[in-house]
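Exercise (ungraded).
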Amino acid sequence: MTQGNHIREDERALEKLKDILLNKDRAELEELRSILNNQDKLSEKVRPIILSHFDFLKENFSSEYEEIVNTLIDKKLKQSEQELLDLIYPSLGKMISKYVALQMTTLKESIESSVKSKFSIGRSIKSMFTGVKESDLIIKDAVVSTIEEVYIIQRDSGLLISSASNQDSMDRDVIAGMLTAIKSFVEDAFNKDAQDLEMIEYGSYKIIIRSYYSFYIAIAVSGAFSATEQFELGTKIDSFAEYKMKLFKGKYDISSEEISLLLEQDFIQK
Amino acid sequence: MISKKIILTGSFGVGKTSIFNQFIFQKFSDKYLTTIGVKVNKKTMNVKGQELSLLVWDIAGEVTQDKVPTSYFLGASGIIYVMDLSRPLTFDKAEEDTKYLKNLIPGAKLKLVGNKKDLLTESELAETVANIKLPIDSITSAKTGENILELFTSLAEDLI
Ligand SMILES: Nc1nc2c(ncn2[C@@H]2O[C@H](COP(=O)(O)OP(=O)(O)OP(=O)(O)O)[C@@H](O)[C@H]2O)c(=O)[nH]1
Ligand SMILES: [Mg+2]
């Protein structure tokens, strides 16, 4: 064998080797291309990666993204703090009302047992048909109550937002201010745990107060006012406040007259 | 109509209620009935062609302002801090008090008032004012009514 032959032999072997190697590469390249161009195939490949990342996120989301999310939430909360509180307040009131109602029931049951002895057939029948407890009817029979005045007042400044009324004599701006002053005075003097003044009573008048975050609603009622009526009125005020909320959006740019009309429709009995 | 809340504050006996009564009812009494809690009243003014309703809160005097329930100040647009020109003790705390109030309600306009002007002679007044280190906005007499309306008018103008 010559030297040259030997070299050529080597080269051919190398060629073959290259062919084999490149062929494999080409085939792989071809396969890759087909995967990339075929969605089903591609997704089959990518799926496990994404799934495993999901698993990773499930485990590590808080450490990886906590800060970003917290900052976002903080920012959003700060922007809409007042709206949020105005939204939460009525529901809170409802929850508390429910608890109080439970306590009232206990009290009423004791009243009921004490009036059982002197029941009237007429009242019992009425009670049966209307579903109103006999004890309430007894109280109602005695005196009927009337809503005299309704106020919506800015909680901090005591400035009157709107009002509605049966009569037309008093200066409601001043009453709103005084009510707020009395409320602040009482809350400041007796409140150790941030509760709101809920009722002022004088003579046969009762002023029912429901406080929300940026405003409160005060309703003056004359005549005997049973616990059930008071509870129902409270709930009614709450729903009004909740509904109102959407009109206010915390800005009070709806006119005082418009709110007054709504108040009159809902609360003042002509 | 725009409504604004204004608070009359300061130590006890300096004449807050007297200023209040002079402004609202144009009346003055020599009797001293200390205020308990708060009294609110309203006066409508026309300032720069604009109708303005002032809700004035006359509160009980306290030796230092941090004793006043903070809720009284909430939402106030104007504060009138009253001192008794005839009782130097009542301006001792003025600097501290006004600093406290400005911090409590940064948005509110504050007027520093020296009252009972009628009890001092010209020279006594000059001497007293020189002794008070703070710039006084108004020197009034609730008794004669001097500068009372001007005080509220200038405050109201600041609020528009
Ligand atoms: N001579 C004079 N007496 C005044 C003046 N203003 C108030 N007084 C008198 O000072 C006393 C106290 O006045 P008030 O207006 O009750 O003082 P106040 O600041 O409201 O006092 P509190 O309610 O206790 O904080 C009363 O006897 C007033 O007649 C004034 O300008 N001149
Ligand atoms: Mg007073």
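Further reading is listed at the end of the chapter. For now, observe: Chain A touches chain B through 18 residues (CB under 8 Å). The mean pLDDT of chain A is 75.
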